[in-house]
Design brief:
This protein is an alpha+beta fold. The protein is built from six helices and 13 strands. A hairpin with a 2-residue loop joins strand 5 and strand 6. The termini are far apart.
Length: 218
């Protein structure tokens, strides 16, 4: 793996965002922060979350996106995507986009653990000004990753990021991303997912799918 580092640390405040007849109150509009930023258990100090029912919390405290994946978006769309444009807290260069649940990132004293992929919602489409962007994001299969914070501290743009692979059997972000759109589920695969340290919201989705799969098998 080439040297990985933080391209940008991005924070946002709650703002109104209109999309057709709907009005969102959201913190998805992230802007690069200057200087050191403190990482707490619930995310970056100074960052705002609009919908706390579906976003944030200890298991989804930090959202990171690969600047290498932004390269793909730039090349495939001709649009100049900027760090933070997908609402991520950390824009990272040099890390694989498809991490596994339980993979850890070491950034100085800060330790982050991958927990779930990002699933696009209407807010992302509204933010991008494109009602079809959620489908484009789904087809691209480059979701980025949510993280829980295992150790707090300060970080800044340019900091080196060290990847420590999970010591449990790999459950990748792409597998989980595809799970969210699948019409049928294999019970054995779902049980393998549950062995990983998933975000609790995602775990609940997998448990519901497993209950249905078990019921269908009789």
């Amino acid at each position: 793996m080439e040297r990985a580092f933080i391209v940008s640390i991005n924070t946002g405040r709650i703002e109104g965002l209109a999309h057709g007849s709907r009005l969102f109150r959201t913190g998805i509009r992230k802007r690069p922060a200057e200087g050191p930023v403190t990482v707490g258990r619930l995310g970056l100090i100074g960052d705002a979350i609009g919908d706390k029912r579906h976003h944030g919390g200890e298991d989804q405290a930090i959202y990171a996106y690969s600047d290498d994946d932004y390269d793909w978006w730039r090349a495939s769309t001709g649009r100049e995507f900027q760090p933070g444009e997908f609402g991520e807290n950390l824009t990272l260069r040099g890390l694989p986009g498809d991490l596994a649940v339980g993979d850890r990132l070491l950034i100085g004293d800060v330790v982050l653990e991958a927990t779930a992929p990002r699933i696009p919602c209407d807010t992302l489409s509204a933010h991008m000004g494109d009602p079809g962007f959620g489908m484009a994001f789904r087809r691209a299969e480059r979701p980025g990753s949510y993280f829980r914070v295992l150790n707090e501290g300060e970080i800044r743009a340019g900091d080196t990021v060290t990847l420590v692979p999970s010591d449990v059997p790999a459950v990748t972000m792409l597998e989980l991303f595809r799970f969210k759109y699948a019409l049928r589920h294999d019970a054995a695969t779902l049980r393998r997912f549950l062995d990983a340290p998933l975000a609790e919201r995602f775990r609940a989705d997998v448990e519901r799918a497993l209950a249905k799969a078990d019921a269908a098998s009789g």
